[in-house]
């Protein structure tokens, strides 16, 4: 009899365990907020900022429009947003650390466009916006679209060709001669290049430069032989140069922006990046770690940006998303250099410095949803009604 009672008790305990609700909202249904909702716009802005900050190569991406937004409210407060963003590149290199809203958009004939999927956890009460993962697929505008409105416009070419490196070296020589820098700079790598026939062959390049150990007080015959200064000391720069050849002479232009590779964003922009949009700064300072025992454990950001080669096919935002789906089983790989977790409050969310005196938990992250937002406000309005890009947008995509 006693054995029978214990058996019934064990069955009852087992049933109560299996019937328990999932922890931390893991089974909560995904919401479909409006693409123009303030919280969605803020989440998209912060996700794009952190994507740009996480990258070491390429150009700062700016928001073209919000395609889809799914929201997963968290029982531990805050929400996880699953975003699909149409993006275009800007004239700012990512090493400039500039915010995307501060960067000039590229001319239509040299735009690279694409889509990013991003999972970001936001918690305004704790002043946190943490990018969990991201996947971006980019594509240059097909040449046929460029030539349809500008037959004489140059089209981006392979920047590793010898003629473009020579152009960078020639234009940098003009900068070294005219600048008031202490040391000579050498070409690090050419990041963008194109060619056009003007009065003769004209070459246009964008390239990174690095400070060398050779002083400008000395005469240097070959800058390429100068050793670069060590990392953390050497200044890094970004230049735009051109060499136009005619049968009589050669015209060289150069403009460079110099910044340290280790420097953070300018103070004003850094304060803006660390402030939750729409929330006064004094309110953020008042929200201290002692006000709430919740201490979030946030994983390191992982993600990748893939740039497809130029194509003459009709590559739409929708088809780029389809190419991402073929990789949906592929886990994002960590960037080359991952520091503390990007967030609005770095002191509270560094992965390697957890406060063990408080509960350690974190947001529940689901696989990226296959279903797009159900809101009729999505996709949102485009930031620019650009003549070249607009035809490449699919108005009403049906799947992710």
Automatic annotation (TrEMBL):
Signal peptide start-end: 1-19
PROSITE patterns: CYSTATIN_FETUIN_B, FETUIN_1, PROKAR_LIPOPROTEIN
SUPFAM superfamilies listed in its UniProt record: Cystatin/monellin
Region ranges (Disordered): 263-296
Pfam family, one: Cystatin
SMART domains, per the entry: CY
GO CC annotations, alphabetized: extracellular space
A biological-process GO annotation: regulation of macromolecule metabolic process
Subcellular location: Secreted
UniProt keyword Repeat present: yes
InterPro entries: Cystatin_dom (IPR000010), Cystatin_Fetuin_B (IPR025764), Cystatin_sf (IPR046350), Kininogen_Fetuin_HRG (IPR050735), Prot_inh_fetuin_CS (IPR001363)
Example GO molecular function: cysteine-type endopeptidase inhibitor activity
Domain Cystatin fetuin-B-type: 24-137, 148-257
Keyword field: Disulfide bond, Glycoprotein, Repeat, Secreted, Signal
Protein name stated in the entry: Fetuin B
């Amino acid at each position: 009899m006693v054995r029978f009672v214990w058996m019934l008790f064990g069955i009852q305990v087992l049933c109560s365990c299996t019937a328990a609700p999932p922890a931390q909202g893991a089974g909560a249904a995904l919401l479909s907020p409006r693409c123009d909702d303030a919280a969605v716009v803020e989440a998209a802005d912060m996700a794009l900022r952190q994507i740009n900050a996480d990258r070491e190569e390429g150009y700062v991406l700016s928001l073209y429009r919000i395609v889809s937004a799914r929201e997963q409210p968290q029982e531990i407060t805050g929400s996880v947003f699953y975003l699909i963003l149409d993006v275009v590149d800007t004239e700012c290199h990512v090493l400039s650390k500039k915010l995307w809203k501060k960067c000039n958009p590229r001319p239509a004939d040299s735009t690279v466009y694409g889509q990013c999927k991003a999972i970001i956890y936001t918690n305004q009460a704790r002043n946190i916006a943490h990018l969990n993962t991201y996947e971006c697929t980019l594509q240059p505008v097909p040449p046929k679209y460029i030539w349809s409105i500008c037959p004489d416009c140059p089209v981006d070419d392979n920047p590793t060709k010898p003629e473009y490196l020579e152009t960078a070296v020639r234009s940098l020589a003009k900068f070294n001669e005219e600048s008031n820098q202490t040391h000579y700079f050498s070409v690090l790598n050419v990041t963008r290049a194109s060619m056009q026939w003007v009065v003769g062959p004209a070459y246009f390049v964008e390239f990174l430069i690095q400070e060398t150990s050779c002083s400008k007080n000395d005469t240097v015959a070959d800058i390429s032989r100068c050793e670069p200064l060590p990392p953390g000391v050497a200044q890094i720069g970004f230049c735009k140069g051109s060499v136009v050849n005619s049968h009589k002479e050669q015209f060289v232009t150069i403009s460079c922006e110099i910044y340290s590779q280790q420097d953070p964003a300018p103070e004003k922009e850094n304060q803006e990046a660390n402030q939750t949009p729409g929330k006064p700064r004094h309110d953020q300072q008042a929200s201290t770690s002692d006000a709430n025992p919740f201490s979030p454990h946030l994983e390191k950001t992982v993600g990748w940006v893939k740039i497809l080669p130029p194509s003459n096919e009709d590559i739409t935002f929708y088809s780029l998303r389809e190419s991402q789906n073929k990789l949906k089983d592929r886990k994002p790989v960590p960037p080359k250099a991952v520091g503390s977790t990007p967030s609005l409050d770095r002191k509270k969310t560094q992965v390697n410095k957890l406060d063990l005196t408080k509960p350690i938990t974190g947001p529940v992250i689901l696989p990226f949803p296959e279903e797009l937002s159900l809101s009729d406000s999505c996709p949102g309005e485009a930031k620019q009604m650009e003549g070249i890009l607009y035809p490449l947008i699919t108005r009403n995509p049906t799947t992710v």
